[in-house]
Amino acid sequence: MEYLVTAEEMKKYDENAIERIGIPDLVLMERAALCTCDVILNCFETGEMPLAKLNILILAGTGNNGADGLALGRLLCDRGVSVDIFCPTDMSKVSPAWQKQSEILKKYGMSVVRKMPDKEYNIIVDAIFGIGLNRDIDGQLAEIIEKVNFRDAKRIAMDLPTGIHADTGRIMGCAFRADITVTYGFVKRGLVLRPGLEYAGKVVKADIGISEKCFFDSFPQMYYYNESAPEVLPLRTADGHKGTFGKVLLIAGSVNMAGAAILAAKAAYRIGAGMVKILSSKKNRVIIQESIPEALFGTPDQLEDALLWADIVIIGPGIGTRSEAKMCLKKVITKSSLPLVLDADALNLLAKDEQLQRLLSNRQETTVITPHIAELSRLMNIPVSEVQDDLYHCAMALAGKLHVTVVAKCSQTYICEENHPTCLNIYGNSGMGTAGSGDVLAGVIGGLMGQGVEGYHAAAQGVFLHAKAGDAVRDCRGEHFLMAGDIVEKLGQIR
Questions:
Q1: Which has the closest alpha carbon to 250: 188, 294, 213?
Q2: Is 173 helix (H, G, I), strand (E, B) or coil?
Q3: Cβ partners under 8 Å of residue 148, min gap 6
Q4: Given this chain, do its domains 2-220 and 229-490 carry the same CATH topology?
């Protein structure tokens, strides 16, 4: 997995590296500049243009990010590259590191200019603010950034594009639009959260000496998966059988609404569950058994016996919100000691009934809920716009309220649980915004839980695998042509 850090976390780890481990700040700065220099030179490693013909402009602020830029300019000059360093901010106050780097530059016969040169450049480097920005950009600086964004040059950001909020990815007035961002130590949240993601370009993480040893028990509170799909899947024993790989009880599908049950059941099987039993309206029996003959079938009046049979319960896809569905949900919450996945209509029923919410919050067993933005809005009784503005904190609040794992579904999905780092899913595509995609996800998470994966990890891994399968469909068919059933089929082919 890859950690995602806030500006505050990164500053703390930087301080730990310097003060507690003893790595001088100028050493860290030199490493940052060296890594960025290598990235820049690799852009032209084919030899199509001699280094002597490269013209590079470095936009350097007066803080430590700007000091990184000054060090970079010196290293590029050493390699025979033509470099101009322009400071677009007030130079009346500079950081001690910037002052030191400026003194070194002078001994190289270089200086920082106060007026932007009227020249053509192959590369423009942003070293204005990095993670230190705490206000919106406006005025002359905004004009400069907008101007360089339209230059015919490759744009490279040092650590974080100027104008991107390090924690949220918000655009702070305007922002430098990078083709490549070389980030130091750990990936900042703003580089993967939208809209910052669109401004970061390709993100290259550079090892400058700030490692996990700098945490000192203060670990980052967010991460994402960057493994291959097989590495995330649970291990399987050679002597296992259908009983040991999990018995999943799926309560899904009201009258003539069998599609959700079929998609969820297929997904649970495809991800490795040993057995799936579907409880649905008896009018759905024929279509379900014809569509997925591997599954067992029963009706809701057989719920108590089915709970004794199962290892995990998924409830909600297509069950509707009538009284029968509500009674079924209440029985599952109060009578079962099994891990639960609550999806779709189960969440709509839950949102309308505070008693059910209290009963759920008092459960000792693992529960995973999978709300999209509108469902989360109803569960929290707050406007949809408020959820959209801050999905992460809304999801964390819901996890704390109900004492469950929350899969807050959106174009970027958060998996939240109390007292646990949050997993952010950065994969998936717009084609997955299609009917049935959520049913597939519920089946994937439930199938993993049936194989013994703990609820929070099943949710995080399930979202990752579901998204990777969606991307595999996109790669072979395109986003416009993706259907939920395609995601199920691709689960067995992702790498």
A1: 294
A2: coil
A3: 57, 59, 124, 155, 176
A4: no
Give the strands of the sheet with 202-206, arranged side by side. Answer: 112-113, 82-86, 55-60, 123-127, 154-158, 180-184, 202-206
- The structural architecture, per CATH, of the domain 2-220 is 3-Layer(aba) Sandwich (3.40)
Residues 11-23 as b or e (16 or more Cβ within 10 Å = b): ebbbebbbeeeeb
Q: How many other C-beta atoms can be found within 10 angstroms of the C-beta atom of residue 38?
A: 14
Please tell me the distance from the alpha carbon of residue 194 to that of residue 412, in angstroms, as a whole number.
8
Asked whether 95 and 70 are in contact (CB, 8 A), the reply is: no
Core vs surface per residue 39-50: b (16+ CB within 10 A) or e: bbeeebeeeeee
The one-character DSSP state at 311 is S
Contact yes or no for 349/325 (Cβ under 8 A) = yes
Q: Mind listing the pLDDT tens digit of every residue in the chain (495 residues)?
A: 999 999 999 999 999 999 999 999 999 999 999 999 999 988 876 555 677 788 999 999 999 999 999 999 999 999 989 999 999 999 999 999 999 999 999 999 999 999 999 899 999 999 999 998 989 999 999 999 999 999 999 999 999 999 999 999 999 999 999 999 999 999 999 999 999 999 999 999 999 999 999 999 899 999 999 888 888 999 999 999 999 999 999 999 999 889 999 999 999 999 999 999 999 999 999 999 999 999 999 999 999 999 999 999 999 999 999 999 999 999 999 999 999 999 999 999 999 999 999 999 999 999 999 999 999 999 999 999 999 999 999 999 999 999 999 999 999 999 999 999 999 999 999 999 999 999 999 999 999 999 999 999 999 999 999 999 999 999 999 999 999 999 999 998 888
- Say which CATH superfamily domain 229-490 falls into: Ribokinase (3.40.1190.20)
CA within 13 Å, CB half, 384: 6
> Residue ranges per domain, the chain?
2-220, 229-490
Report yes or no on whether pTM surpasses 0.85: yes
CB 417 within 8 A of CB 218: no
